Amino acid sequence: MVNQKITCIILLIISTIALLACLVVNFQDWVVYLVAIIGIPLWVLSLGFLTMAKPRPEDVEERVKEPFTGY
Amino acid sequence: MADILINVIIAFLAGSLLLGLHRKIMARVQKRPGPPIIQHLLHSLKFFFKETAFPKTASMPFYIGIVFILAVVWVVGVIVGPVTKGSLLILFGVYAVYKIVEHNSGSSSGSPYGKASCVRAVLSAATELPLFAAVVLVYLKTGSMNIGNIISYQASNGPLAFSIPLAAIMFFLLLLAKSPYSPFAITKDKTLVSGFETEHFGFLRGFIMFSESISWYVMLWVFLTIFFGPLGVVGYVVGMIVITFITGFINAVTPLLNPNHSVMSQITLGAACFVGTVIMILI
Prior knowledge:
The complex is a heterodimer of chains A (71) and B (283).
Chain A lengths: L1 H23 L4 H23 L8 H6 L6
Helix pairs in contact in A: 1-2
Chain B lengths: L1 H28 L9 H8 L15 H22 L4 H22 L2 H12 L4 H15 L4 H11 L2 H4 L1 H14 L24 H26 L4 H21 L5 H24 L1
Helix pairs in contact in B: 1-2, 1-3, 1-10, 1-11, 2-10, 3-4, 3-10, 4-5, 4-6, 6-9, 6-12, 7-10, 9-10, 9-12, 10-11
């Protein structure tokens, strides 16, 4: 869990820097498109991993045990 | 980059509000008060803070990767559409990948509902036939696949919606198929709970809703641009609201078709419109 958090923080920082770099520096078009296509979803994904609430330790097993099979 | 970021943010906000409006219209047609128009946007953001766990049966990392790919697909849609006004063929490719995402999202979750939806996603690829036919007809009429050139053609010859209306209807079928609670939405049939999204909850659902808001905006933008362009901001806003209203009304009063009927209806309507448009062009 700690590793996941660190990875997400690193990815968030990298994607933020990449997006800001493309805003400031005048790169070639294909570089900007590549950074946007990878960077924007990566930014949202890593942010989501950091903002999501985690289940309580005693509930973890229950949450991941079964696929959802109906009400 | 600023242009891309601004367009992605506009697509997300406008798409969310339009989908909220869609729910509101459906509710009012069904004599329910319905949620506020901003509810879809609030839900998308709220899910980012909800408890999220990954089922043991999920196929990792594909289970998460597919949500990422969905966002990639529609960011490409924004770049090819509103930002660069590029090729329609790339947008057709974007929609084809979107179908693959539906398929793999269901299969990666391990849920029986997701898997049933995954199988239906293969059938629902029938929606691509009217889309492909519409793209071909637009090419036959304008001699170009480039959205910028198509806009220029319409500036001098009038909107394509009036010269090849049946092609516009075919494209509208795609919009209808993609809209929530559509009669053709066999992958999200309520008997499958939430279909391929059933096991994607918490922030992954918020991420999916983020991408779907962008997809709704992009598809409406493409439809309005290639059949009613060139339009100003007001034209796009009015057009998007009107189409959302029409699809909401149709979806509110139309039951979900079963998979066979859904596929056959789309193929039959697509074929009739294609033949009709070719005859109109030849005459």
